[in-house]
Amino acid sequence: MAYLQLRGIEKTFGEQRVIKGVNLEVQPGEFVVFVGPSGCGKSTLLRLIAGLETATAGTILLEGRDITNLPSSKRDLAMVFQSYALYPHMSVYENMSFALKLAKADPALIEEKVSRAAKILNLNDYLMRTPKELSGGQRQRVAIGRAIVRAPKVFLFDEPLSNLDAALRGQTRIEIAKLHRDLGATTIYVTHDQVEAMTLADRVVVLRDGLVEQVGTPLELYDRPANQFVAQFIGTPQMNMVAAANLKALGSKSGLKIPEGGYVGLRPESVILVAPGEGEFEAKVELVEALGAETLIYVSTAWGAQLVARQTSRTPLTAGANVGVKIDTSTAHFFDAKGRVAAVN
Amino acid sequence: MKRLLPRLLMAPAIGTLFLWMIVPLVMSIYFSVIRYNLMQPDQVGFIGLENFEYFITDPSFMTATMNTLLLVGSVIVITVVFGTLIALLTDDPFPGRNIVRILLISPFFVMPTVNALLWKHMMMNPIYGVLAQVWMFFGFTPVDWLTDWPLWSVILIVSWQWLPFATLIFVTSLQSMDREQLEASRMDGANYLQQLRYLYIPHLGRSFAVVVMIEMIFLLSVFAEIYTTTGGGPGDASTNIAFLIFKQALLNFDAGVASAGALFAVVLANIAGVFLIRMVGKNLDK
pTM of this prediction? Predict the structure, then answer.
């Protein structure tokens, strides 16, 4: 029995269908990440769960209870907003205790819950400050603290790291992961950053144009993408997509049946550069990105395909050099003309 | 040399400003310490603070001071309260909102004298005024507003004129209200009244300060509305300091006492100003 269940959720704004029927089950304690390009409806879906928007069709169940038409405050959910949405005229303590105060909780209990949350988040020294006296990372923690204090059934995060600088983002990501492990709370997290999705999630939900493209663990999505979109969305640099027509030679060599009019997807680590003449085909180096631990080499073939290869060793190659390309067909992905995964054997 | 030229070039502007400010002030001070009555041109000379004594012991003086404070205070309270309500009411989109907003703001474009005449003749006239018609429709005796409630009539007229100003400031302030904060408070379980108390009112704090300060400056010297409607009467029931000064200068022809009154008005404005700035200044720091 799923903890949180979405059944056939649809949402229209005027003429525009933003969510086109989403079904999803979230297990207790799970960390689920919604990821997708901008405008895919991931934030809208989160807001529908939060009750900030009303679904046009479908039902939302939490612990078997229908919450589709309940007001947000009655749903037992807490949300961390992109802008943190801290109340600017209240101190950190007042911000964190606001919900309990409105619920007329016992002041001693409020005090206890707030100080426990503050301790978890290392906010004890800042309780009497106002949000504008805090740094971005501290504000972020207050926003999370405000959610923790309410002890909700599900935590909702709406792109919480997008306002932080790169270094702090990585650090906060780790803190959120640790926090989730400590609290064991069911969490739904929205992001457009697939690195965040891969590192935080138990399961990732990839959305496009209001539809779920694939649901799975991060490595499932990486190793077995359901379609071309997911394959290209997950992983940096992007998976190489080569028109199958250009790889006929490869097909005949490896004995695989490459789908007519389809595509072959190759992760950058499946593209291996060798000395000219030793590979399956020839290519010319266009650009070398040496990142230290790994090196990305962009090559173009005589028939116009662009490929990127990733290797963990450094390279003496420079732009303009001729290389041979070998393909690790065991990790190649095959898609038919419509972008769906194709059987090749 | 390098400093001389810019100073020289700025001198005309600074000089003009200086003269513009200082000359009237000095002349007021000068007139307030000499005997200067147009009805008695033969009696001249330095009389010290006697003009101030005349002004302050004038039987109308206390009434005028109280009327001034009551007028300023009431109009500020009315415009801030109703301005906030109207701004909140028109904050959410509805069909025709822009037209409604223009209509709400238009009273501010009406000249004070015209405004006063409109109210005097079209609204408050006990025989053919709109209010009299309403009263008669419900079977009541029409109220002769300007005779029975002179000061409150003036307050109503001035409030009508200044309400749009307050509304305008609050409407613009509400537009910068953070939507996510409101959503967060909704998730925290706040109803509209609680949102009002914990989010909207604190957010409007700075605008309250601006409205109170600006209105105070302009309302201390309300004159046209009083002159056009009640003429300060009946008796001195609707006389404020500005109107009392006018009476001294142009009805009693006593320029000396009028100047003393003008200086008193400056002092009063400063006292009120200090209190108000103390009260609202905290908001401006934020």
Answer: 0.79
For residue B277, CA distances in Å to B173, B198, B214 come to: 20, 23, 11
Low-confidence ranges of chain A (pLDDT < 70): 1, 247-257, 343-345
- Give contacts of A73 with chain B, Cβ < 8 Å: 186-190
pLDDT, one tens digit per residue, over A47-99 is 999 999 999 999 999 988 899 888 888 888 999 998 889 999 899 999 999 99
User: Rg of the Cα trace of chain B?
Assistant: 24
CATH numbers and ranges of domains, chain A = 4-225 (3.40.50.300), 240-335 (2.40.50.140)
How many angstroms away from the CA of A52 is the closest CA of chain B? Answer: 7
Contacts 24+ apart (CB under 8 A), A18-21: A18/A44, A18/A210, A19/A44, A19/A45, A19/A48, A19/A55, A19/A210, A20/A209, A20/A210, A20/A211, A21/A57, A21/A58, A21/A211
Question: Distance (Å, rounded) from C-alpha A61 to C-alpha B232?
Answer: 70
C-beta of residue B167 within 8 angstroms of C-beta of residue B78: no
Judged by CB atoms closer than 8 Å, whether chains meet at B181 and A86 is answered as yes
Token pair of A242 as six digits? 């080569």
With a threshold of 0.85, tell me whether the complex ipTM lies above it.
Answer: no
Domain boundaries, chain B: 50-285
A42-A44-A45 Cα angle (round to 5): 65
Domain B50-285, architecture per CATH: Orthogonal Bundle (1.10)
Query: Sign of dihedral through CA atoms A33, A36, A38, A41?
Result: negative
Contact (CB<8Å) A52/B203: no
- Average pLDDT of the residues in B212-234: 87
Chain B interface disruption, residue of A48, A73, A159, most B CBs within 10 A: A73
**What is d(CA B229, CA B16) in angstroms, rounded to the nearest whole number?**
37
